[in-house]
Amino acid sequence: MNADNQDFALYKQDYETYTELENVIQEMDGLVDAIIVEGASDREALKGLGATKEIVICSSKPYTEFVDYLSSRHKKITILTDYDRAGQKINKKLSIRLEHVGIRVENQYRAKIGRILGFRGLMCIESVNSLRKRIYLV
């Protein structure tokens, strides 16, 4: 395969991955009230994919305050922390606390997005920013 064909194949993979993520985000956006992420780059990535719901950074407040904030505003959320050990730990801890106060945690979106990213060897939502830059040359 020559360099041009190889570049096109990589571009096509990036584009298909990004499009698949956009579709999941659009579906999720219609179902949840808020999305929890670890940082500002994650928020930027989700907004770039078309998310319109409130995107809340979980490290912005102590856990008790954070859970109180969410429970006073939302009924259904999804948690899109990183797919590494630390992100999984945050996801588990938050899921338990949020469900305890009556917030439904929609885990299927975390799983879907994790599979899509995993096929490309990506472990975090913010990696979508580099995909977008490669596709749209921004």
SSE blueprint:
Layout: H1 3-29, E1 34-37, H2 40-48, E2 54-57, H3 63-71, E3 76-79, H4 85-100, E4 104-105, H5 108-119, H6 127-136
Helix pairs in contact: 1-5, 1-6, 2-6
Short précis:
This protein has 138 residues and is of the alpha/beta class. The protein has one domain (3-136): Dna Topoisomerase Vi A Subunit, Chain: A, domain 2, CATH 3.40.1360.
**What's the SSE pattern?**
HEHEHEHEHH
Distance between the termini: 27 Å
Q: What is the residue-averaged pLDDT?
A: 92
Structural class: alpha/beta
Gyration radius over CA: 16 Å
Shape: elongated
Structure annotation, total helices: 6
What number of structural domains do the residues give?
1
Largest sheet: 4 strands, parallel
Descriptive overview:
- With 138 residues, the chain is of the alpha/beta class.
- Strands 2-1-3-4 form a 4-stranded parallel sheet, with helices on both faces.
- The mean pLDDT is 92.
